[in-house]
Give the backbone structure.
Amino acid sequence: MSAGLSGTPAIELRGLVKDFAVGLRGVKLRAVDHLSLRVEPGQVYGLLGPNGSGKSTTIKIILGLLEPTAGECTVFGVPGGRVEARLAVGYLPESPYFYRHLTGRELVQFYARICGLSGALLPARVAEVIGWVGLTEAADRRIGTYSKGMLQRIGLAQALVHDPRLVILDEPTAGVDPVGAAAISALILKLKAQGKTVLITSHLLAQIEDICDRVAILDRGQLILEGAVRELVGVADRQALVVEQLSAEQLGELRVWLAARGRTLESVEAPRARLDRIFLDHVGRPAPAKKEGGP
Ligand SMILES: Nc1ncnc2c1ncn2[C@@H]1O[C@H](COP(=O)(O)OP(=O)(O)OP(=O)(O)O)[C@@H](O)[C@H]1O
Ligand SMILES: [Mg+2]
């Protein structure tokens, strides 16, 4: 039994419904449709689904930014909108909007103060989280000069600065290059190792598969599949073997050997490296330190 199963869940949604009034004559759009799920403390949990399936709406309800039409939502046992629930949560919104005239460091300091951090510890904590997201060199540049991926990363630093127990990341890798995406995956696993709970949405399913313990798949606001990633992707009764330089003759012998034992060789294919692996092998090294100009 995994830790937390009998305790208070990090997030619990029960029969959540969200209707938006759209158009004239009170036409309603059901964005979230009787959604129930539990995220246990310490889990990395992926919320998946096509565009418009209700992921961001669900997140906004968890954060208390939207009122549900029906149903319940608790964060560490208290209603999502309550102040103590909000302080326990770090949030990276999708398409984050930040003040362009601030530097990255000023932005993270600003959020740190909102969350009650102050005193001598604050600058050190701000520098630490900026280092986690790889923006130390660019920290004193104005956000208006940041690339799309850099904006996502400073948003991530902002979400982590107050050391929240629950981190909610709405598409943290949108617009981030493969090296940056791998760095974000590593950071999420580091948060998990610290015992944090992470709820993440992403359309990068390979990344989700690599880092998430469980996933929920939504479609038109409804939960269509939920479970442990290992169980969903694992094919329990098959094995794949990789053999070096097998000749056609040896392959024939192998088939005969297997047939004699009541087994069939179902497929023979050359293993392929994943393109992201090749990309990372070639450009994954940190860039050489260079002098950053002022803002
Ligand atoms: N404020 C709003 N007013 C009206 N409709 C809304 C509002 N916010 C979301 N919706 C609708 O609710 C549905 C779910 O939207 P949501 O943003 O939650 O989807 P999503 O799963 O996050 O999609 P994406 O992958 O594109 O980010 C969509 O049909 C959307 O148009
Ligand atoms: Mg969304």
Summary: The two ends are 52 Å apart (CA to CA). Residues 8 and 77 are 6 Å apart (CA to CA).
